Amino acid sequence: MADKVNxxxxxxxxxxxxxxxxxxxxxxxxNNTLIYELNIDNSGNIDEDQPILAYWIRYxxxxxxxxxxxxQRKFAYGIDSKKINKDQFxxxxxxxKKLPFYLSKSAEDKKFHVYVTINNKKLLLDRxxxxxxxxxxxxxxxxxVELRGINQANDTVVTExxxx
Length: 164
Prior knowledge:
Elements: E1 21-27, E2 33-38, E3 52-58, E4 64-67, H1 70-76, E5 79-85, E6 88-93, E7 96-105, E8 112-118, E9 121-135, E10 140-151, E11 156-163
């Protein structure tokens, strides 16, 4: 279980009712939330060029939906994807390319999910939390990142912390 040192002073809402949500990301300094959603067409086919849509839910602005800005998409919260095969893509955050994530169709429920292997545990990713303490717009002081998901080995909810 993750160490609870330096938790955020904010209380974060849990996004609900988003049909194709894969996972969400929350961070200081506010409770606005990034949604990462499966990008499918009207026929239910995945967009192979851009399999993930990322956008904000601005809880501070009546839960309005907002696109990421160019800077956010290209330098912070955007995701680069590479097709591995028909039902699998490698994903990497533009701001932290070291850790690969995988968008794959589950054999069990036949739906797409995002998986990440952290500390020798394969997680079906649900939430990412980024703890920021100060810094600047271009160089935030990221204290740690927590990844929460279901451990695929034993079907338990796990939170793993990475110090960056």
